[in-house]
C-alpha cells in the first residue's frame, strides 16, 4: 500500500496536469488529445491497482483502516473495461464535454450574431431579460446545440459505463456511484454507533429527507413564486400547474435567485445582493479570493499556498484563452509533500461569484486538510461533504452583519417611493424576510434539481427509464419533483435535454450537491452552537470563531478515513442527514409564506396535488375585504374579476379615455421598435461593416413603419386639442411633426444610406504622415490620430498639410451626397407642413405662442451679447499665435484655421500652454497623475462617484459593463466622437440590472484631464436620460412615454452635461481627484499660494474660455449655414463660399490656403443651471470656483430632469430658475468670465491691439472654381456629417445638443446611434417624432 500510494500520487498528478492544460485552453485539439490519453492511462493504472488489490483477502485484515483502503481501492470503475472499450468510453466523454463547452447560440434580436456563449452571454439573458420570447429562444437554442447533439453518444456511454460497473461487481453504474455512501457490516461494527447502510437504504434516506423539505418549504416557495410571476407573465402561467422553465432566471431553473427582484416580499428594502456595492467599492477578482481566504484563516484553517496563487486561473480575460468556465477546484495529488492546489473559474465581480469563490476555496481547504492521509482517503467523508464546506462558510458570509461589518458591503436600497407603513412587520423583520427569501431562491429552489439529475441517470442505468424515452422520463421527474415544465409543447425524443447541463456530458455524479445542501445547514447549526450563538439561525456568523474552526478542521483532516455518518455526527451533531436544520433556518419565511398564500387564495403544489389553503387571515384584511370575507369564507383568486357595481367597459369612439389607451399601446409598440433599432445602431457604431449598416437601416425602416401605421390609425380619430389631460394632449401635439417618418420607404432608405455613406467616408478616411506621403494603408492616420497631431504639433507647415489632406480625402462623395440629403430632408419638412428643414428642426423649440422667429431672434440676441467677450478672446489668441508662428502675418486679423489645436477650429483648449496669461503660475492639471496612477476605467468610476456624491443616480451595471471608454482594437472601424446612448428600455430604479435599463457612453478616452472632465459631461447626459426614463420622482409612477423621454428642448441635454463639466473643471474638485489617485506616500497636492491665486484664476478662466467661448460662434454658424442651404434648397452651388463667409464674419477664422466655392465642402443655459445650483448650494466664492458638495442642492436639478419633455421648455426653465420667466440669458456666462474679460481688455489696451476683424475678406480665400476637381472635403466633417441635425447656439445657453429620440434615420457612424454627438453638440435625430 505504501508503494501503491506513491504510484497513485505520480499517476494522478500526470493525469491532472494534462487535464488542466486542456480545461484552461479548450480550443487546442492537441491538448484535448493529450488529456484524453492521460485520462485513459490513469484509468488503466487504477484498473490494474484495483485488480491487484482484489487479489488480497482483505476481509480478514486486523486493521480497519487497511481494510477500508482495500475495500474502496479494489473498485476499478471504468478501468475495468477492455483497452478498446476504455478508449471509446473516454472519447465519448470528451466529445460530449467538448460539445457542451464550445456551444454557442444566436442572439434573439440579431439572428446573424451566433457567438453567444453560456457564460456570460446566455446566463446574463436568462438572469435579466423579462421578455418571454427572448427567454424561450435562448432556452430552446441551448438545448438544440448541446443535449440534442450528444443523445446517441450518451446512450453508448451509458452502455459502456454499465459494463464497467458489472465487471466491478455492481448491478449498474448508479449502484457504483453510490458505493462511497455505503457503510458495510465490518465498518459498522468497528466504528462506534455506525449502522450498516447500503445503496438502497441510502436512496430511501434521500427520499425521506426530500419529502420533509418539499412539503415543509419547497412547495410553498414554488407556489409563492408562481403567484408573483403571474403578475409579470400574465396569461403564460397556470396558477395550479408547473412553472415554465424558461422564466426562473437560470438555464436549468435550478437556482431562482436572479428573479429575486420579481418576488421579493418587500421590494422597498434590500434583497442583500451586494453586487453593486462590490463594484462601487472597487472590488476586483483578487479581493474576492482574498476575502474567502481571510474567512478560512479566521477559523484557524489554512492560508492558500503560493503555488495556488501562481497557477490558478481565476480571470479568463486576463488568461487570454478559452477555458471550461464551470468553476472547479483541483487537487494535483502530491500528498503530504505537495502544495499544488488550484481553482479554475471565469470570475465576475458580483455576489453570486463571491459565494462561488468561497465554495471552491472550501474544496481547497478540504484538500489541504487531508493531504497527510493515504491516497484513497484523500477525499471527503462522502462526496456531498466536499460540496458542503464552502457553502457552509457562505451561510455566514451571506448574513447581513458579515456583508456590512466585515466586508463593508451594503445592499442597494431601491429608489422607489416607499409604500404605506406595514403594520404587521417591523422594518427589521421585513429586511430579514427579504434576506431569507433570497437564500431560499438560492438554496431551496435547488434541492429538487440537485436530486433529480442523478435520479434520472440512475433510471437510465437500471433500465427503469428506457433509452427511447429518456426525454420523457427527464421531464416527468422535473414535473413530479420540481414542478417545472418546458415552455410550449412537450419535448420529443429527438431532444436530450439532460445533456444541456454540464454534469451530464462531463459524467459528474450530482447527488453530492443535494447531500451538500442538506448537511451544510446541519454543519451550520452545530457549529453555531459550538460558537456559543443562540439567536436566529439565519443570522449566525462563525467568522473569527476558532472554537468552531477546531471542530471543522478536525472533521476535514479525517478525509474519507471513516464512514461519513461518524464525521457527520462530529460536524453536524447527528449520525443521520436531518432536514430539520433547514426548516429551523427558514422558519420565519415559512410562516410568511403560509399567511401570504392563504390570504391570496393560492394552492400549494401543482396538478392534482395543488392543495388550497382553507383559511383567511382576517387580521390583515381591509374593511371591504373583511366584509366580503364575513359573507364568504373564500378569497378570490388574483385572476378573478371583481366588481361592486356594473361597469360599462365599452369606451365611446373618439373619447379621451379611449385615446389614452390607444396612445399607451402606440407608445409600447414604437418603443419596442426603437429599442431594437438602437441596439442595431450600437452594433454598427462599434463595428462599421456594410452588413451591420444594412441591419441598422432595416431596423429603423421597421420602426418608421410601425410609427406610421399607428399614427395613421390613431391620430385622425381624435380632436386632441380639446382633451382635458394636458399630458395626453402634449403627447399628440409633439408627434404632429413626424420628421422624416413622413417619407416613403424608398426615400427613407435612400436618406439612411446617404447618411451612413457620409459617416463611413469620415470614419474610413486616412491621411499619410507628412514624412511618408506615399505610405501604405497600415501606416496611414485616421481622424482620431490626426486630432492628436493637430493638438500637439506646432510646425506651421505640417499642420497645414494635415488640414488640407484631411479635406482632400473626404470631399467628393460627401458633397454629392449632401445635395441629395438636403433634397430629402426638405421633402420631409414639406410633408410635415414646413417651408424647409430648418423650420422643421426648430419646431422643437416652439411652444404655445413662442414661434420659430421668436426663437431665432432670441438666439441672435444671445450671440450679440456674448460677442464682445469672444472678440476680446480672439484678439488675444491672434496676438499670441502671431508671436508663436512667423508664417502668421502680423497684419492678418483673421486666424488661420489650422493652428487652433483642433481639426475644425472649434475648441482651442489644446493651445493653453501657448496662450496662458501667467506662464509662471500653474493651475491644477491632473493629466500626469492620471497617466501615472490611473486607468480610463478608474477615471470613469471617479466621475460616476461624483454624481452619486451629489445625490444623483448610480450608474447601472449595464453602463459600467458595456460603455465604451477606449477605442476598441478588435473592431473594423469605430469613430471616436463622444456620445451618450439611451436604449429606451423600460427603466425601473431597482437593484436588478435588467430593469434598470441600458444607458451607455461611447468615447475614445485618453488619460487626460480633458477627457476626465468630458466623462462628467457625458454622464450628465446619462443622468438626464435616466431621470426622465424612470419618472419615479413624479406624482405619476407610470413609465415615461417615449415622446417625453428627451430634454425639455434639444439644448437642455447639452446644458445639463455642460453644467456638470463646469463643476468637474473647478480646481478644488480636480485637486481632490489628484490626491485621491496619487500613489500612497506621495506628497499631497495643494492649492496655489494665496498671493498667486488671482493669476491662477485668470489662467483657469482662460483655459475654460478656450474650450467654451471659442465654440460659441462655431455652434452658431454651423446651423446658420445649414438653415440657409435648406432654405435655398440646392439653388446655390457654392456651399463652401457660404460656409467661409460665415466663419470669417462671425468667427474670425480663415482657411490657411485658398478654397473653391463648390468643389470644396468644408462644411448659455449650462451657465444658468450652474449659477442656479451654486446659489442653492450656498456658494459664496467666485462662480467659477463653485463645485457642488451637498446632495440637497441637486434636488431642483433632479426634479427638472425627471420632467423630460413632458412640459414646455420655457415652463420647465421658469420652474427651475424660479425667476418667473423662462428666458435664455447670457448674463450667467458673462458673470462667469468677467475677471477674464477685464484681463483681456487690459491686455489688448496695453499692447494696442484692436479687437475684431474686417468682414469683407472672403474673396481673398475663395477663388474661381477650377474646371476639373479632385476629391473635395468638408471642413465641418465632424459636425455637419456626423450630426446632420439642428444644433444652434442655444447649446451654450440652453445646451447645444439633443439626445436622439424615437428615431428613424440613422446618421453617420456615431450619428447612427440614436443619440447625441455630445462633445460636438450635434443633435442626431432625423425623425424626432418617431
Automatic annotation (TrEMBL):
Biased composition (Polar residues): 633-648
Keywords: Carboxypeptidase, Disulfide bond, Glycoprotein, Hydrolase, Membrane, Metal-binding, Metalloprotease, Protease, Signal, Transmembrane, Transmembrane helix, Zinc
Top-level taxon: Eukaryota
One GO MF term attached to the UniProt entry: carboxypeptidase activity
Active site, UniProt feature: 360, 503
Chain sites annotated for binding chloride: 181, 512
Residues spanning the membrane: 1271-1294
Binding site for Zn(2+) 1: 359, 363, 387
GO biological process: proteolysis
Swiss-Prot/TrEMBL cofactor(s): Zn(2+)
Coiled coil: none
Cysteines engaged in disulfide bonds, as pairs: 106-114, 325-346, 528-540
One GO cellular component term: plasma membrane
Binding site for Zn(2+) 2: 359, 363, 387
InterPro entries named among the record's database cross-references: Peptidase_M2
Family note: Belongs to the peptidase M2 family.
Protein's recorded name: Angiotensin-converting enzyme
Lineage, uppermost ranks: Eukaryota, Metazoa, Ecdysozoa, Arthropoda, Crustacea
Amino acid at each position: 500500500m505504501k508503494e501503491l500510494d506513491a504510484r497513485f500520487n505520480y499517476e494522478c498528478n500526470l493525469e491532472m496536469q494534462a487535464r488542466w492544460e486542456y480545461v484552461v485552453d479548450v480550443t487546442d485539439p492537441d491538448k484535448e488529445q493529450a488529456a484524453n490519453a492521460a485520462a485513459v492511462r490513469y484509468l488503466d493504472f487504477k484498473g490494474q491497482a484495483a485488480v491487484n488489490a482484489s487479489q488480497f483477502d482483505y476481509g480478514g485484515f486486523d486493521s480497519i483502516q487497511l481494510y477500508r483502503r482495500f475495500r474502496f481501492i479494489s473498485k476499478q470503475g471504468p478501468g475495468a473495461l477492455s483497452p478498446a472499450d476504455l478508449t471509446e468510453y473516454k472519447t465519448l466523454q470528451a466529445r460530449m464535454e467538448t460539445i457542451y463547452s464550445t456551444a454557442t447560440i444566436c442572439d434573439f434580436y440579431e439572428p446573424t450574431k451566433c457567438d453567444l456563449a453560456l457564460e456570460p452571454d446566455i446566463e446574463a439573458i436568462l438572469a435579466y431579460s423579462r421578455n418571454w420570447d427572448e427567454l424561450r429562444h435562448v432556452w430552446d437554442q441551448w438545448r438544440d446545440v448541446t443535449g440534442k447533439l450528444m443523445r446517441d453518444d450518451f446512450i453508448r456511454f451509458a452502455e459502456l459505463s454499465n459494463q464497467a460497473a458489472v465487471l466491478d461487481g455492481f448491478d449498474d453504474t448508479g449502484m457504483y456511484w453510490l458505493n462511497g455512501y455505503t457503510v458495510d457490516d465490518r465498518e459498522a461494527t468497528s466504528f462506534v454507533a455506525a449502522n450498516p447502510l447500503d445503496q438502497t437504504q441510502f436512496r430511501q434516506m434521500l427520499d425521506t429527507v426530500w419529502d420533509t423539505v418539499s412539503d415543509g418549504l419547497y412547495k410553498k416557495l414554488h407556489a409563492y413564486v408562481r403567484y408573483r410571476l403571474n403578475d409579470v407573465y400574465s396569461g403564460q402561467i397556470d396558477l395550479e400547474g408547473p412553472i415554465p422553465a424558461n422564466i426562473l432566471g437560470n438555464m436549468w431553473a435550478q437556482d431562482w435567485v436572479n428573479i429575486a427582484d420579481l418576488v421579493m416580499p418587500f421590494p422597498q428594502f434590500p434583497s442583500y445582493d451586494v453586487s453593486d456595492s462590490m463594484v462601487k467599492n472597487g472590488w476586483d477578482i483578487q479581493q474576492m479570493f482574498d476575502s474567502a481566504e481571510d474567512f478560512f484563516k479566521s477559523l484557524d484553517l489554512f492560508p492558500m499556498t503560493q503555488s495556488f496563487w501562481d497557477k490558478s486561473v481565476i480571470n479568463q480575460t486576463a488568461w487570454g484563452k478559452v477555458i471550461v468556465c464551470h468553476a472547479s477546484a483541483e487537487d494535483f495529488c502530491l500528498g503530504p509533500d505537495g502544495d499544488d492546489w488550484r481553482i479554475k473559474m471565469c470570475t465576475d465581480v458580483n455576489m453570486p461569484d463571491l459565494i462561488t469563490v468561497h465554495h471552491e476555496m472550501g474544496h481547497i481547504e478540504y484538500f489541504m486538510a487531508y493531504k497527510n492521509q493515504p491516497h484513497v482517503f484523500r477525499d471527503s467523508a462522502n462526496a456531498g461533504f466536499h460540496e458542503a464546506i464552502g457553502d457552509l462558510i457562505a451561510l455566514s458570509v451571506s448574513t447581513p452583519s458579515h456583508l456590512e461589518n466585515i466586508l463593508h458591503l451594503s445592499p442597494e436600497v431601491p429608489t422607489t417611493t416607499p409604500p404605506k407603513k406595514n403594520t404587521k412587520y417591523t422594518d427589521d423583520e421585513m429586511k430579514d424576510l427579504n434576506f431569507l427569501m433570497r437564500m431560499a431562491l438560492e438554496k431551496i429552489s435547488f434541492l429538487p434539481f440537485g436530486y433529480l439529475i442523478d435520479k434520472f441517470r440512475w433510471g437510465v442505468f437500471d433500465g427503469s427509464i428506457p433509452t427511447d424515452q429518456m426525454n420523457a422520463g427527464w421531464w416527468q421527474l422535473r414535473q413530479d419533483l420540481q414542478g417545472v415544465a418546458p415552455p410550449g409543447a412537450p419535448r420529443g425524443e429527438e431532444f436530450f435535454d439532460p445533456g444541456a447541463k454540464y454534469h451530464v456530458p462531463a459524467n459528474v455524479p450530482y447527488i453530492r450537491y443535494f447531500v451538500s445542501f442538506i448537511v451544510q445547514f446541519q454543519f451550520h447549526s452545530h457549529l453555531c452552537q459550538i460558537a456559543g450563538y443562540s439567536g436566529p439561525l439565519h443570522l449566525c456568523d462563525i467568522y473569527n470563531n476558532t472554537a468552531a474552526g477546531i471542530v471543522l478542521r478536525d472533521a476535514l483532516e479525517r478525509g474519507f478515513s471513516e464512514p461519513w455518518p461518524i464525521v457527520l455526527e462530529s460536524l453536524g451533531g447527528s449520525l443521520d442527514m436531518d432536514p430539520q436544520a433547514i426548516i429551523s433556518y427558514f422558519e420565519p419565511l415559512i410562516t410568511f409564506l403560509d399567511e401570504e398564500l392563504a390570504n391570496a387564495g393560492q394552492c400549494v403544489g401543482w396538478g392534482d396535488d395543488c392543495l388550497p389553503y382553507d383559511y383567511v387571515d382576517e387580521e390583515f384584511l381591509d374593511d371591504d375585504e373583511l366584509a366580503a370575507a364575513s359573507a364568504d369564507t373564500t378569497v378570490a383568486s388574483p385572476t378573478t374579476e371583481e366588481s361592486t357595481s356594473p361597469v360599462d367597459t365599452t369606451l365611446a369612439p373618439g373619447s379621451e379615455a379611449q385615446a389614452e389607451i390607444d396612445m399607451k399601446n402606440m407608445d409600447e409598440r414604437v418603443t419596442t421598435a426603437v429599442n431594437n433599432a438602437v441596439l442595431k445602431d450600437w452594433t454598427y457604431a462599434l463595428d462599421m461593416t456594410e452588413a451591420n449598416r444594412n441591419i441598422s437601416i432595416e431596423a429603423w425602416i421597421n420602426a418608421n413603419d410601425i410609427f406610421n401605421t399607428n399614427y395613421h390609425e390613431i391620430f385622425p380619430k381624435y380632436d386632441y386639442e380639446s382633451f382635458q389631460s394636458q399630458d395626453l394632449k402634449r403627447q399628440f401635439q409633439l408627434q404632429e411633426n413626424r420628421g422624416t417618418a413622413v417619407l416613403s420607404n424608398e426615400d427613407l432608405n435612400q436618406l439612411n444610406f446617404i447618411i451612413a455613406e457620409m459617416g463611413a467616408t469620415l470614419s474610413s478616411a486616412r491621411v499619410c504622415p507628412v514624412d511618408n506621403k506615399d505610405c501604405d494603408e497600415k501606416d496611414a492616420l485616421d481622424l482620431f490620430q490626426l486630432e492628436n497631431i493637430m493638438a500637439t504639433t506646432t510646425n506651421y507647415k505640417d499642420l497645414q498639410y494635415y488640414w488640407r489632406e484631411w479635406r482632400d480625402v473626404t470631399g467628393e462623395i460627401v458633397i454629392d451626397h449632401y445635395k441629395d440629403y438636403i433634397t430629402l430632408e426638405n421633402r420631409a419638412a414639406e410633408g410635415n407642413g414646413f417651408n424647409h428643414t430648418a423650420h422643421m428642426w426648430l419646431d422643437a423649440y416652439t411652444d404655445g405662442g413662442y414661434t420659430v422667429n421668436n426663437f431665432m431672434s432670441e438666439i441672435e440676441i444671445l450671440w450679440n451679447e456674448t460677442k464682445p467677450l469672444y472678440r476680446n478672446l480672439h484678439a488675444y489668441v491672434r496676438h499670441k499665435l502671431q508671436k508663436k508662428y512667423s508664417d502668421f502675418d502680423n497684419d492678418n486679423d483673421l486666424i488661420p484655421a489650422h493652428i487652433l489645436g483642433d481639426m475644425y477650429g472649434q475648441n482651442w483648449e489644446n493651445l493653453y500652454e501657448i496662450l496662458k496669461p501667467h506662464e509662471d503660475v500653474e493651475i491644477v492639471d491632473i493629466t500626469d497623475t492620471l497617466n501615472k496612477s490611473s486607468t480610463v476605467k478608474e477615471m470613469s468610476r471617479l466621475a460616476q462617484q461624483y454624481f452619486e456624491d451629489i445625490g444623483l443616480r448610480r450608474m447601472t451595471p449595464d453602463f459600467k459593463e458595456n460603455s465604451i471608454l477606449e477605442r476598441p482594437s478588435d473592431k473594423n472601424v469605430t469613430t471616436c466622437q463622444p456620445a451618450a446612448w439611451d436604449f429606451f428600455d423600460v427603466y425601473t430604479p431597482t437593484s436588478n440590472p435588467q430593469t434598470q435599463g441600458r444607458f451607455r457612453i461611447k468615447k475614445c478616452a485618453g488619460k487626460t484631464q480633458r477627457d476626465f472632465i468630458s466623462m462628467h459631461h457625458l454622464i450628465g447626459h446619462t443622468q438626464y436620460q435616466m431621470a426622465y426614463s424612470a419618472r419615479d420622482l413624479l406624482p405619476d409612477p407610470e413609465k415615461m412615454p417615449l415622446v417625453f423621454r428627451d430634454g425639455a428642448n434639444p439644448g437642455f441635454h447639452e446644458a445639463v452635461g455642460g453644467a456638470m463639466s463646469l463643476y468637474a473643471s473647478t480646481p478644488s474638485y480636480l485637486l481632490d481627484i489628484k490626491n485621491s489617485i496619487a500613489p500612497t506616500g506621495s506628497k499631497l497636492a495643494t492649492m496655489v499660494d494665496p498671493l498667486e491665486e488671482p493669476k491662477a484664476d485668470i489662467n483657469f478662466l482662460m483655459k475654460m474660455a478656450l474650450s467654451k467661448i471659442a465654440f460659441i460662434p462655431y455652434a452658431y454658424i454651423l446651423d446658420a449655414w445649414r438653415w440657409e442651404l435648406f432654405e435655398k434648397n440646392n439653388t446655390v452651388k457654392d456651399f463652401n463660399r457660404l460656409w467661409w463667409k460665415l466663419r470669417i464674419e462671425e468667427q474670425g477664422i480663415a482657411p490657411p490656403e485658398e478654397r473653391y466655392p463648390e468643389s470644396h465642402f468644408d462644411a448659455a443655459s449650462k451657465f444658468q443651471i450652474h449659477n442656479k445650483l451654486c446659489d442653492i448650494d450656498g456658494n459664496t466664492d467666485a462662480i467659477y470656483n463653485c463645485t457642488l458638495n451637498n446632495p440637497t442642492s441637486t434636488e431642483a436639478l433632479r426634479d427638472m430632469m425627471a420632467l423630460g419633455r413632458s412640459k414646455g421648455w420655457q415652463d420647465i426653465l421658469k420652474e427651475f430658475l424660479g425667476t418667473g420667466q423662462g428666458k435664455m440669458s447670457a448674463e450667467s456666462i458673462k458673470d462667469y468670465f468677467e475677471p477674464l474679460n477685464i484681463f483681456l481688455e487690459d491686455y489688448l489696451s496695453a499692447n494696442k491691439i484692436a479687437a475684431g476683424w474686417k468682414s469683407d475678406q472672403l474673396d481673398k480665400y475663395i477663388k474661381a472654381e477650377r474646371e476639373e476637381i479632385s476629391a473635395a472635403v468638408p471642413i465641418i466633417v465632424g459636425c455637419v456629417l456626423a450630426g446632420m441635425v439642428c444644433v444652434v447656439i442655444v447649446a451654450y445657453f440652453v445646451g447645444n445638443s439633443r439626445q436622439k429620440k424615437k428615431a428613424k434615420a440613422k446618421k453617420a457612424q456615431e450619428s447612427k446611434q440614436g443619440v447625441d454627438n455630445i462633445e460636438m453638440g450635434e443633435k442626431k435625430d432625423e425623425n424626432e417624432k418617431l
